Request: fold
Amino acid sequence: MEQQDDRRRSVPGAQAIARASSLLRLVTASPDGASLQSLAQRAALSRSTAHRLLTALRVEGLVDQDETSARWMPGPELYLMGTVAAARYDVTELSRDIVRSLAVKTEESAFLSTRRADETVCLVREEGSFPIRSFVLSEGVRFPLGVASAGLAILAFLPDHDVDAYLERHPEIEERWGHAHGTAPMRRRLHETKARGYAVNPGLVVEGSFGIGAAVFDRHGRPEWALSLTGVEFRFGPDRLPQLGRTLLAHAHQLSSRLAGARR
Reply:
C-alpha cells in the first residue's frame, strides 16, 4: 500500500484519479444507488470533494444522479465501456450455466465472484428454490479478500508470501469487520480452508447468514475466481455441509477446466 501511495504522489493527477476511481467502485457496488454522505464517508473524502468529483464524473457520463432521491448511480458510459471490456474480461457467459446448476442442485443462492486486486466482486447471482434466502451478496457487491467465503477461498490458495503481504497491508479489516477477522483467526480459517478444500463463513458478515466458497483457478493454477453458496444458518448444519461442499467443489473444478480451455 505504501508503494502504491508513493506512485500516486509521483504521478501528476494520480491522487484525483484514485479518488474518482474509488467513488466509481462505491457507486457500482450500490445496486439501489448511494447518497452523497454515504459515498463521502466510505471514500474518506469531504462532502465537497466527493460532490466535485461526482459532478465531474457525471459530466463524462460515468455516473448519474436520480432526480427524485438524489442518489448516485452508474452512468451510461460505464455500460458502453463494459461491453467493450467484456470481450476480454467477462466470464459470466462461460460460467452462468454452472452457477445455475449449483443453485438448482443445492436449492441455495449461488454466486460467481472474481478477484480484483485485494477484493472480490460478485459477477453472477442465481437464486435457489429454498424460500428463505440470504441477501448479503448480489452483482457488483465487493468484499475484501478473506471476509466473505469467496474471498476467503481465493486468499487461502494464494502463495504464502502473498497472504502475508495482504494481511500486512490491511490491518483495518479487523476494526471494520470485527475481531473474528483479526490476523490470528483469519489465518486459522485459511488453514482450515486449504485442508477442507472450500471456505466456510459461519455468519461472520451477517449473523445467521452462512456461506461456503470454493476457488476457481486459471490455467496457471492461480485462484482468480470463486463459486459460493449462501443461505440461512440451519441449512448449513453438519449433516448437510459436507454434501454441499462436495457439490460446490465439483462445480468449481468444472468451471476451472472450462475457463482454462477457453483462454488457451
Observations:
- Residues 2-83 form a domain with the Arc Repressor Mutant, subunit A fold (CATH 1.10.10.10).
- The chain has two domains: 2-83, 90-262.
